[in-house]
Design goal:
The protein is an alpha/beta fold. The protein has a single domain, classed as Alpha-Beta Barrel (TIM Barrel), CATH 3.20.20.70. 33% of the residues lie in helices and 11% in strands. The chain has an 8-stranded mixed β-sheet. It is globular, with a radius of gyration of 19 Å. It starts with a helix and ends with a helix.
Amino acid sequence: MHDPRPLLERIPFPALRRRRLTTLQVNIGYRCNQSCVHCHVNASPHRTEEMSGEVADTVLAFIEHERIATLDITGGAPELNPHFRRMVVTARDMGVKVMDRCNLTILEVAGQEDLAAFLAAQQVAIIASMPCYLEGNVERQRGKGVFAGSIRGLQRLNALGYGRDGTGLELNLVYNPQGPSLPPAQETLEADYRRVLGEQHGIVFNRLYTLANMPIQRFGSTLISKGEFTRYLDLLQHAHVDANLGGVMCRDLISVDYRGYLYDCDFNQMLDMPLTRKGGARVHLSELRIGELDGRPIRVAGHCFGCTAGQGSSCGGALQDAAE
């Protein structure tokens, strides 16, 4: 597989500094029941890396000690980690908002039959991958049968109250473009999702998040193989909007890998661009105190234009509102 990092590090990006840390985004393993073309993690059923119970305890202790407001759990399919449910329950008992980045088809995997009910009982906010409302587009990106499984997953979540007014059960969907192009306007696409998913499948949800595909890992390697990497980076750079710099997620979020090491964001984690101390030593969560990140420079490179192009793109969707 081609490594996009050397190409990305040659591209300058505006300097950024951190604000107060509010969100801990924790990647608890790269194993997944799917293997998607656009996946910036390069997750698949064959990956074996996963967070240990000891590191999970470190995460929970940090959240309690530093009074972190939000725990954002991602993967892979994070639910496959044996410590996922313990982390959810413990964090919720602390009053922390917990977000699960769920691929929907995991709800039908053997041993996960009660997962949807567990998430609802813990009032976990679900960020669900749903790259299109059309079956053909989803299956080209994510594999045969994924669309039908995703629809069944959404219907199961709706039946538990997710996405419905007054339940407090938050269900947000995530759209990714099919290839090296920018996402369309988030509000317009959200209206299309509501109409098609509602009329054809009876599905409701809270919000749609549009995310640009990051030119890293599997997607970045594919672009290099097809000779499209430079063109896509040019597209992102020319669509850059300075106003989006105020809303990028790395200013308030820190990414933790399955070993407990820290990165400015999940994308830097996948490029192996860690937070370091003087001398180059990696920073482990067990060594961190929240205040020492305040005002710290953020490690940037060419892929960061994926977050600032057009309306902007982050783990919370378009940045246009955040920038205004």
